[in-house]
């Protein structure tokens, strides 16, 4: 089957059958499709769309383009569950959710990604823990899932390799923001991980890829229908991303916040609501809870009795990190050399936050990548970022900036202040949970 004929069909608005899509995916893996040909088909799909059958065929073919994980031989005694977020600023939900699920009896091989655009990546956060292996061997990953119940790790070389090549091509050819291509990309990795239940956190707002509710709903519907169609029971929550989630953004700072959350020292209310809601969906989906209320009771228990924190500690140790991280986090999580408050210029209520810009400032501080090969400074970012609706007096801190040196801290403090609008009248915030979608 000639690549150019397949590209021509899609270019002219035709529909590809499963064998044509299979040929494309095989060509991505064995290199018989050049980068130019793959990019041309990605752009044709971006412009002309893929229908549901084409999206299902692409998802299936990419799922089976490498090895798939099979957990049957492990006799785990609990469901294999996972969550995927479409990305936001300060989104550290995975760091708490994986051990919470594990403490409730689930097994969570969480295949995560690095920062993308303005959003922070879960893997970069875990990389700020010294020794922690985000690219473990298959044996180490299996041992962590068996022993701790969860493992937050990266995509292995042989998991959905067609997606890895296509994603890299899409990234540099302006073909990322296509709902069918995003759907197949996300789900191929989840299906290859051998899951039995998935919940999607589809974010919408000025810090999300899906800026509008319409786009978030379209993406959520596509993900839920293709995943369920492929035999993976899946639900989606659409959640608000019009402000930083929790109080911090930046890699080490978010690990600190996750530890504070799990240990009960501090649980920011929006972060708690979203994390708990996603966890409850999965506990019901995995039949570990009989109802939503039952799930909430279990979640409270594993947070309050310390068992979720203990699972986090076990996961870190199983993947090569320090065995006493949760007892002595300050010994392992490096602080930035300079931290300084960002003062409010006047009295007022926080009425608007330019969330995407805050994500970009974290990159400018060195906490994210400008180029794929960049090394990142895990120590930098912002903490104590005020939520929408908070009241300040002139000079009160809007946030604290953590930077590599004083000049950068001062410059970033000025830029951060410009992302937070203050008004004279009390302002509110959108509820954190906006909509729920399931196949039923
Ligand atoms: N995340 C993915 O894994 N793939 C996409 O296409 C977009 C976000």
Give a verbal description of the structure.
By secondary structure, the protein is of the alpha/beta class. It has 3 domains: 3-49, no CATH class; 72-330, Pyrimidine Nucleoside Phosphorylase, Chain A, domain 2 (3-Layer(aba) Sandwich), CATH 3.40.1030; 334-423, Aldehyde Oxidoreductase, domain 3 (Alpha-Beta Complex). The chain has helices at residues 3-11, 18-30, 35-48, 52-63, 93-103, 122-126, 138-148, 161-171, 179-192, 213-229, 251-263, 269-285, 292-304, 307-318, 329-332, 355-367, 406-417; strands spanning 81-85, 108-112, 150-154, 197-204, 234-240, 338-343, 348-353, 381-383, 391-392, 397-403, 420-423, 433-438. It has a 4-stranded mixed β-sheet, with helices on both faces. Strand 4 (197-204), helix 10 (213-229) and strand 5 form a beta-alpha-beta unit. Helix 2 (18-30) runs parallel beside helix 4 (52-63), helix 5 crosses helix 12 and helix 9 crosses helix 10. It is globular and about 65 Å long. Bound molecules: uracil (URA). Uracil (URA) binds at residues 113, 167, 176, 181-182, 185-186. Uracil (URA) binds next to helix 9.
List its traits.
binds uracil, Aldehyde Oxidoreductase, domain 3, 440 residues, globular, alpha/beta, 3-stranded antiparallel beta sheet, 15% strand, Pyrimidine Nucleoside Phosphorylase, Chain A, domain 2, 4-stranded mixed beta sheet
């Amino acid at each position: 089957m000639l690549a150019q004929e397949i590209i021509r069909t899609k270019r002219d608005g035709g529909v590809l059958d499963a064998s044509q899509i299979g040929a494309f995916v095989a060509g991505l893996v064995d290199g018989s499709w050049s980068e130019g040909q793959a990019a041309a088909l990605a752009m044709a799909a971006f412009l002309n769309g893929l229908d549901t059958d084409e999206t299902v065929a692409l998802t299936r073919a990419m799922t089976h383009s490498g090895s798939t994980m099979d957990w049957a031989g492990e006799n785990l005694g609990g469901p294999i569950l996972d969550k995927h977020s479409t990305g936001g600023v300060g989104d550290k939900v995975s760091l708490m959710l994986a051990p919470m699920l594990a403490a409730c009896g689930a097994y969570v091989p969480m295949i995560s990604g690095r920062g993308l655009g303005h959003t922070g990546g879960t893997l970069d956060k875990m990389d700020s823990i010294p020794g922690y292996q985000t690219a473990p061997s298959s044996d180490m990953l299996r041992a962590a899932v068996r022993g701790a119940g969860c493992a937050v790790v990266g995509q292995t070389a042989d998991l959905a390799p067609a997606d890895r090549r296509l994603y890299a091509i899409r990234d540099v050819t302006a073909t990322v923001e296509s709902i069918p291509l995003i759907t197949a990309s996300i789900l191929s990795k989840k299906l290859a991980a051998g899951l039995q239940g998935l919940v999607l956190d589809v974010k919408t707002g000025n810090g999300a890829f899906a800026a509008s509710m319409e786009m978030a709903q379209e993406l959520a519907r596509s993900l839920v229908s293709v995943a369920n169609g492929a035999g993976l029971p899946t639900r989606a929550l659409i959640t608000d991303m019009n402000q930083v989630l929790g109080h911090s953004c930046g890699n080490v700072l978010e690990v600190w916040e996750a530890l504070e959350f799990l240990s009960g020292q501090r649980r920011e209310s929006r972060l708690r609501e979203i994390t708990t809601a996603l966890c409850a969906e999965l506990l019901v989906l995995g039949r570990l809870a009989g109802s939503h209320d039952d799930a909430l009771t279990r979640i409270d228990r594993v947070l309050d009795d310390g068992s979720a924190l203990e699972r986090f500690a076990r996961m870190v140790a199983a993947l090569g990190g320090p065995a006493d991280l949760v007892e002595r986090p300050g010994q392992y999580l490096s602080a930035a050399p300079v931290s300084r408050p960002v003062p409010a210029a006047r009295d007022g209520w926080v009425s608007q936050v330019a969330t995407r810009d805050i994500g970009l400032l974290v990159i400018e501080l060195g906490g994210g990548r400008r180029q794929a090969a960049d090394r990142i400074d895990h120590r930098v970012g912002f903490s104590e970022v005020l939520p929408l609706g908070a009241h300040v007096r002139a000079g009160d801190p809007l946030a604290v900036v953590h930077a590599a040196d004083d000049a950068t801290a001062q410059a970033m403090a000025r830029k951060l202040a410009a992302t937070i609008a203050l008004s004279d009248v009390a302002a509110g915030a959108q509820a954190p949970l906006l909509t729920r979608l399931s196949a039923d």
